[in-house]
TrEMBL record:
Residues 54-256 form the ABC transporter domain. Keywords: ATP-binding, Membrane, Nucleotide-binding, Translocase, Transmembrane, Transmembrane helix, Transport. It comes from Dactylellina haptotyla (strain CBS 200.50) (Nematode-trapping fungus). This is Iron-sulfur clusters transporter ATM1, mitochondrial. The keyword Ribonucleoprotein does not apply. GO terms for biological process: intracellular iron ion homeostasis; iron-sulfur cluster export from the mitochondrion. Belongs to the ABC transporter superfamily. ABCB family. Heavy Metal importer (TC 3.A.1.210) subfamily. GO terms for cellular component: mitochondrial inner membrane. Residues 269-274 have a biased composition (Low complexity).
């Protein structure tokens, strides 16, 4: 089970490692096995990025006609918001991301970014606007520097070092013989967590629109909005608190995860919520 977040790089900065991001993403999405047939429409224009608002309007989709995965799914992610998509395994969370990247076209309804139907813009400009950051699993077999930059590939060397300082890992990094070129797998879980949290913090500062696909709810409870998918529809939507107080699906998922984590992770829980 992997976790994935997709911050949309809507500030218009160019991803130096775009090619690499897409390759990683393809691995993550296991897309090699998929015959991708989506093409530019004859009048496709480059996506005109403004704030990065994402809108799903009555989106229905299935990989096979006889088996719908999403049924009339509608939601709006305001520009700069951090939104998490949660729900039972196989409910279509990753499918939402695949549709956003236009690896498939919707069967009905539409997906808009800043008011533009993604079928009317060039696939290249669409995918250029979207970055991928794996979330809270040690996914990268790569250097510390690479991992910090992954959240924001246009970061300067100074910014990379500032992030490390803020994440309180600069001293630890300095002690590694390879410094910032140390492979991330050398980090302990604690250090790695603070690194990833800080990357998320930077994304927030830069007000990127972010969509997180989450399995572990603890990682997303501070989202601006949580979308709960179940049986192909948006079952619930709101902030963590709203859903815990008034929801049923999310509230029971949260309760179940809390029960599982008691006794193993309580310290982290309290510091994360303070
Ligand atoms: P998980 O929490 O387990 O990662 P998910 O909510 O992200 O799951 P999706 O990956 O979006 O679920 O898949 C939704 C459904 O579509 C699943 O039943 C899955 O088996 C099916 N599915 C996914 N990809 C394909 C594909 N390429 N062809 C056919 N069916 C697919």
């Amino acid at each position: 089970v992997f976790q994935l977040s997709v911050p949309l790089n809507f500030l218009g900065s160019v991803y130096r490692e775009l090619r690499q991001s897409l390759l990683d993403m393809e691995t993550l999405f296991n897309l090699q096995k998929v015959n991708v047939s989506v093409k530019d429409s004859p009048n496709a224009k480059p996506l005109a990025l403004k704030g990065g608002e994402i809108k799903f309007e009555n989106v229905s989709f299935g990989y096979h006609p006889q088996r719908p995965i999403l049924k009339n799914v509608s939601f709006t992610i305001p520009a700069g918001n951090k939104v998490a998509v949660v729900g039972p395994s196989g409910c279509g969370k990753s499918t939402i991301l695949r549709l956003l990247f236009r690896y498939y076209d919707v069967d009905s309804g539409r997906i808009l970014i800043d008011g533009q139907d993604i079928r009317d813009v060039t696939v290249e400009s669409l995918r250029k606007a979207i970055g991928v950051v794996p979330q809270d699993t040690p996914l990268f077999n790569n250097t510390i520097e690479h991992n910090i930059r992954y959240g924001r590939t246009d970061a300067t060397d100074e910014e990379v070092r500032a992030v490390a300082k803020r994440a309180r890992i600069a001293d630890a990094i300095a002690k590694f013989p390879d410094g910032y070129q140390t492979k991330t797998s050398a980090l302990d879980t604690e250090t790695e967590n603070s690194l990833l949290q800080n990357i998320n913090g930077i994304l927030k500062e830069k007000r990127r629109t972010s969509v997180f696909v989450a399995h572990r709810l603890r990682t997303i409870f501070d989202s601006d909005q949580i979308i709960v998918l179940k049986d192909g529809v948006v079952a619930e939507q709101g902030t963590h608190q709203q859903l815990v107080d008034g929801g049923t699906v999310y509230a029971s998922m949260w309760a179940a995860q809390e029960v599982l984590s008691i006794g193993t992770d309580t310290d982290k829980a309290s510091s994360a919520s303070s």
